[in-house]
Design brief:
Helices cover 9% and strands 35% of the residues. With 227 residues, it is mainly beta. Belongs to the SOS response-associated peptidase family.
């Protein structure tokens, strides 16, 4: 499961990294503890170019009768994407990327659950594969929502949790975003565990467990800010 993550770069860095024009939202601020049901930065392809916008985290299928249960669909298992009614119709046409520079997970120890932040070794931005949908309420108001796709844990993550978000390599990013790409078998092959050798995990403060906390010190190695 991927239930918290970080995106701490500037808006300009996001735009440069994903070759986008001006974003389709007015306000952007780094997130040190992004949580479900919040609006998060996401990248889609409009058929001509990448677009940076915001999606609410927690998928609300377009066919839903009301705006509820979205918090239950924050993740989608890659192995069953084509079997679930909420996801299968989106793979061909509504794929997105959720930019991140880290995600959190909790490792069970004898002393309790230890929160960890998992990043790339080089500290760079990475792309989590996602799906999005657009729901319209009875008054005609549209809500764009998303889910993050997960896969089996790699050798780093399996010591922490049995799942991890799908992280796309640079070549896979373009394939995943390309709206003209309708090759479902090839797209599904992109949803693999990321190379564990390129990742690292370190302990962070238990304060990350509270969704109301969202400040830079959350990403510090546990104990580092005290020394």
């Amino acid at each position: 499961m991927c239930g918290r993550y970080t995106i701490t770069v500037t808006l300009e860095e996001l735009m440069t990294r994903y070759f986008t024009g001006d974003p389709s939202f007015d306000h952007y601020a780094p997130k040190f503890n992004a949580a479900p049901m919040q609006y998060i930065p996401a990248v889609i392809h409009d058929g001509k170019r990448n677009k940076l916008g915001q999606l609410r985290w927690g998928l609300l299928p377009s066919w839903s009768k009301e705006d509820k249960n979205a918090a239950k669909l924050i993740n989608a298992r890659s192995e069953s994407l084509l079997e679930k009614a909420s996801f299968k119709g989106l793979v061909s046409s509504r794929r997105c990327i959720i930019p991140a520079d880290g995600f959190y997970d909790w490792q069970v120890k004898e002393s309790g659950k230890q929160p960890l932040r998992i990043t790339l070794r080089d500290g760079q931005l990475f792309s989590m594969a996602g799906l999005y949908d657009i729901w319209t309420d009875p008054s005609g108001h549209k809500i764009a929502t998303c889910t993050i796709i997960t896969t089996a844990a790699n050798s780093l993550m399996e010591e922490i949790h049995d799942r991890m978000p799908v992280i796309l390599g640079k070549d896979a990013e373009a394939q995943w975003l390309d709206r003209s790409n309708q090759d479902i078998p090839s797209l599904m092959k992109l949803l693999q565990p990321y190379d564990a050798r390129q990742m690292l995990a370190y302990p962070v403060s238990s304060a990350v467990g509270n969704v109301r906390n969202d400040y830079q010190e959350l990403i510090n190695r546990a104990g580092a800010d005290a020394g």
